[in-house]
Amino acid sequence: MDWKVFATVFGTVFLAELGDKTQLATVLFASRSAVSLWTIFLGASAALVLTSAIGVAAGAALSQYVDPKYLSYAAGIGFIVIGAWTLYQAS
């Protein structure tokens, strides 16, 4: 296992997920007193694992047809567009 790649992916995903809508929804589910916290934890964890698996599979499939360098460019441009749109909406 490449621990440098593992640490990079873990850090990036961890920081991206902090305070996002998914975490806030999980907090709301957990705030209900009549539910099992383990059920909420397992459901949220399974959902995050599945979405990550879909992302890995899609990335692997796309890299067979598109140069990964161009995928990085597209992702970067996408983040810039989302950031610009967010700033535009905030003003």
Verbal overview:
The chain is mainly α. Helix content is 85%, strand content 0%. The chain is built from four helices and no strands. Helix 2 runs antiparallel to helix 3. The radius of gyration is 17 Å and the shape is extended. The model has no long low-confidence stretch (mean pLDDT 90).
In terms of topology, how is this protein built?
Layout lengths: L2 H15 L3 H10 L6 H29 L2 H23 L1
Order of helices and strands: HHHH
What is the end-to-end distance?
A: 45 Å
Class derived from helix and strand content: mainly alpha
DSSP strand count:
0
Looking at the structure, what is the overall shape? extended
Global Rg: 17 Å
Question: Which descriptors would you attach to this protein?
Answer:
mainly alpha; 4 helices; 91 residues
Question: What can be said about this structure in brief?
Answer:
The chain is an all-alpha fold. It has helices at residues 3-17, 21-30, 37-65, 68-90.
